[in-house]
Each structure stands twice: as C-alpha cells, then as structure tokens.
Amino acid sequence: MAQEDKPTSSLMHPSSSYTFLLNIMSKRRTWACLFFFVYGTLLASSWNFLQSTLSWYNLQVQSSTSAWPALYASVLLGTVFGLLSMVATLMVMVPAVLVMWITVVVLLAFFGKPRRTLVVEGRKITGEIFGK
C-alpha cells in the first residue's frame, strides 16, 4: 500500500522545474520578450538574406548581360518576404482570434445559455472564424 501511495503523490505534486517553467511562461513579460526575440531574429536573418542576394545579383550583373538574374532575384526576394509576412500575420492573428472566441463564449455563458448550447455555438463560431 505504501508503494502505491508514492506514484499518486508524485502525480498530484508536479516537479519544481515544471512549476518554475509554468510560472515563467505565465508572465506577459516572457511572451513579449519571446515575441521580440523571434521578430528580431526574423528581421536579422531577412536582412542578411537580402544582403547576400543583392551581392549575388551584383556578381551576376557584372558577368552577364541577360535580365534573368534580376528576374530570379526579384522572384526569390518576393517569395521569401511574402512568406515571412504571412508567418508574422499568423502569429498576430491566432491570439487575437482566441481572445475573440473566448469573449463570445463567455458572453453567451453570461446571458444564461446552457453548456450544450455553448459547445454548439462555440463550434459554429470557430467554423465562421476559420472559414470552415
């Protein structure tokens, strides 16, 4: 019996590293720092990519007279920066949609909707938001 109590007590009390991680990640300051770190990294890497593409383009222009290097460089840069813009938009959109969804469900609960109706309405709202 004593051996059976030990596993259940360890399940009820999470480890100190887990609680420390939860405590850190629950702070708004941590998420703001992660946000700026990710965007700073994206900005720095895109700047380096832009510089390397432009140096490649300058080398190609000096050695060739065709217009293909300019077309290739513009398509490559447009694709990369378009993808970066879409990723940035998704990173901003997802938390905004979650806040909006939670707000609507809480307002529905506040006005006395039963739980089953809240689940159905929540699924409808999610489908409308994500275009399903």
User: Spans of 5+ residues with little confidence (pLDDT < 50)?
Assistant: none
Number of helices: 5
Percent strand equals under 5%
H-E string: HHHHH
Q: What fraction, in percent, of the residue positions are helical?
A: over 70%
Query: Termini distance?
Result: 52 Å
Count of strand segments: 0
User: Which value, in Å, is the CA radius of gyration?
Assistant: 25 Å
> How many discrete structural domains?
1
Mean pLDDT: 76
Find the structural class using helix and strand composition. Answer: mainly alpha
Shape verdict: elongated
Q: Let me know the largest β-sheet.
A: none
Key attributes of the depicted protein:
0% strand, mainly alpha, elongated
Structural summary, described in words:
Helix 3 packs antiparallel against helix 4. This protein has helices spanning 2-12, 16-25, 28-63, 68-110, 115-130. 88% of the residues lie in helices and 0% in strands. The chain has one domain. The protein is elongated, with a radius of gyration of 25 Å. The chain contains five helices and no strands. The chain is an all-alpha fold and 132 residues long. 0% of the residues are buried. The longest helix is centred in the last third of the chain and has 43 residues, at 68-110.
